[in-house]
Amino acid sequence: MRAVVYSENGPSSVMQLVERPVPKPGPGEVLVRLVRAGVNPTDWKVRAGLSAKLATPEATPGQDGAGVVEEIGEGVTTHIAGQPVWLFMTQHGQPWGTAAEYVTVPAHKAVELPEDASYDLGASLGVPAMTAHRALTSGSVERIAPGSFEGVTVLVHGGAGAVGNAAIQLAVWAGAKVITTISSEEKAELARAAGAHHVVNYREGDPEAAIRDIAPDGVDQIVEVAPATNNDLDRAVIAPRGTIAIYANNGGDELTMPLRATFSLNLRYQFIQLYGIEPEQIRAAAEDVSAAVKAGALRVGAEAGVPLHHYRLEDTAAAHDAVENGAVGKVLIDLD
């Protein structure tokens, strides 16, 4: 099979396309023939050695993907050969990821992809949708389903980003009133396409006043991508006993806050890294994301606010560079 590998941490140029044997699934695993691989910021950061140094002779990047189950490992009763699936956290806990024609994964990381769902969508779930799920369920609502967010107002910062887009779509499906912040009219159109009810350009006017005008009593839940720059705004617009769920460090690596003004609101700050949450939270995310896909509530494409950018496997370095340079939408690697 063809696979992209790297033997040292570094820039995208350390990756090379090679031939490797098709792996065999071990006990509890399935072998998946990839059709699409998704590229996320975590992929280039792992490759670059920003989160951890390479500890194996070589590695294949890629957490997310979609394809078809080719072979079943011993003890697996949940899958059948020929079954379309989407993959999540593929490279977590093993050196091989989805930038290859085949990959083996623990069976629970291969989730059934509905017949009417595209491989583009399947490869776009994983990190963005499951991170968005955890961010939304860090407060008083534990599961995402139709009606579970009725009466809840959610503020999503960076609504044109992959996680922000998924958070908008999931929250709208669950019945929330969704406000999002963006930095341009182009990104505003993407956020509206995702389903946001209200869009606030934080570079124009007074975003605090604009948000308070929409939610006079404050917002109940904030999905935060840039806490270092947004914390004063968050504290000004959140309702007492609200939750601020932080999943990234855009805009700065350190967060400071006035303690009395913060704890007097009885706020909850939830810091999120997908790879460290509890197994039951991972299961809940996979189940709820799958239900949203089946309901048609999670979508990709420009019409859903997620422009798609396709690359060939041999152009994986360019795909990584596109994500690192802030490509708007979803970067995918085609393997079919």
Explain this structure to me?
This protein is α/β, with parallel strands linked by helices and 336 residues long. It folds into 2 domains: 2-124 and 306-334, Medium-chain alcohol dehydrogenases, catalytic domain (Quinone Oxidoreductase, Chain A, domain 1); 129-275, Medium-chain alcohol dehydrogenases, catalytic domain (Quinone Oxidoreductase, Chain A, domain 1), CATH 3.90.180. It contains 10 helices and 15 strands. The protein has helices spanning 41-48, 119-123, 126-136, 162-173, 185-194, 207-214, 227-237, 259-263, 279-294, 316-324; strands spanning 2-5, 16-19, 29-39, 64-72, 84-87, 102-106, 110-112, 153-157, 177-182, 198-201, 219-224, 238-246, 268-271, 308-312, 330-334. Strands 3, 4, 5, 6, 7, 14 and 15 form a 7-stranded mixed β-sheet that branches. β9, α5 (185-194) and β10 (198-201) form a beta-alpha-beta unit. The longest helix is centred in the C-terminal third of the chain and has 16 residues, at 279-294. The two termini are 12 Å apart. Pfam families: ADH_N, ADH_zinc_N.
